[in-house]
Amino acid sequence: MERGKRIQHILMEVAQARERVRQQKPLIHEITSPVTMNDCANITLALGASPIMAEEIREVADVVKQAKALLLNMGVLKKERLRAMYCAAEVAIEQHIPIVLDPVGVGSTLWRTTEIRAFLQTIPVSIIKGNSSELYCLLETTHAGTKGVDAQDEMQLEPSFWQDGAAYLHATLGVTGKNDVVADATGAIFLQNGCATLPYVTGTGCMIGALAAAYSSVATPFIATAAAIMSMAIVGEQAVGCGPGSLHATLCDGIYSLDKDSFFQYGQITTPMKV
Ligand SMILES: Nc1ncnc2c1ncn2[C@@H]1O[C@H](COP(=O)(O)OP(=O)(O)OP(=O)(O)O)[C@@H](O)[C@H]1O
Ligand SMILES: Cc1ncsc1CCO
């Protein structure tokens, strides 16, 4: 498809996904870190979906059976929660519902890196959403490279690197940072919205994961990932001038008000000349 037409087509599908979430109010099962559990629940509600947070191993299977998508956020990872994630993921696979993985902080310690890599070798996920340091770590062989949970200096990697990475991991990748990228095995796009204050609010990436899970219940993994990143980045851009505290609240208000026209009006997508 010609590049301009492809971008219009993506914007149209993203806009449709936004409408569908409002109409269908899908139930989304989210297992997240305690740092951002409340943020993920609220942003899911603001989008128009319905979150349920459950991580007790004796009930996760029953919760997944009712859900339309599963979010697994590996922040503050611990053994018990990881066991619950395996259990939830196995049921999600049986139920044919999409799994979104947020490998928070992968690369920061050997234990976390080993566990997250092992998880990905066992569980097929639809979407992996992470900052550029986290996703780079999943595609290299050493575990060093991520400091804490935030992206390090912006990585200028070719889109073909992420496209090959998506093929290798058998998932759509949502790579966030100053320049956001969405890639699957067939291609990659750049998303150019955002604001420099977003990294000063913890959990903006985690909330993108929650949005991706909600969108994935009504759209393809590629469109769901693009919709999630664009939603957060457009709303962040419109909140320019806010400090971190007011930005946090404004993001939730912005997602609530975001409608299909916002994507056509403000969405900045580019496609590489050659992937
Ligand atoms: N320097 C920047 N300029 C503009 N937008 C940015 C910048 N850095 C990040 N963003 C935006 O912030 C959002 C979150 O991305 P980021 O990579 O900071 O997530 P994260 O590190 O996973 O967050 P967290 O771990 O706190 O949940 C994205 O929408 C991205 O576009
Ligand atoms: C700060 C922090 N530490 C573990 S998870 C988390 C939230 C951002 O991912």
Automatic annotation (TrEMBL):
Cofactor: Mg(2+)
One MF annotation (Gene Ontology) recorded for this entry: magnesium ion binding
Catalytic activity of the protein: 5-(2-hydroxyethyl)-4-methylthiazole + ATP = 4-methyl-5-(2-phosphooxyethyl)-thiazole + ADP + H(+)
Enzyme class: transferase
EC number: 2.7.1.50
Keywords: ATP-binding, Kinase, Magnesium, Metal-binding, Nucleotide-binding, Thiamine biosynthesis, Transferase
Binding of substrate, residues: M53, G203
Source superkingdom: Bacteria
Alphabetical list of InterPro entries matching this protein: Hyethyz_kinase, Ribokinase-like
Binding site for ATP: K129, T176
Pathway it works in: Cofactor biosynthesis; thiamine diphosphate biosynthesis; 4-methyl-5-(2-phosphoethyl)-thiazole from 5-(2-hydroxyethyl)-4-methylthiazole: step 1/1
Protein's GO biological process: thiamine biosynthetic process; thiamine diphosphate biosynthetic process
Function: Catalyzes the phosphorylation of the hydroxyl group of 4-methyl-5-beta-hydroxyethylthiazole (THZ).
Homology family: Belongs to the Thz kinase family.
NCBIfam families reported for this sequence: PRK09355.1
Name the UniProt record assigns to this protein: Hydroxyethylthiazole kinase
Organism in which the protein naturally occurs: Megasphaera hutchinsoni
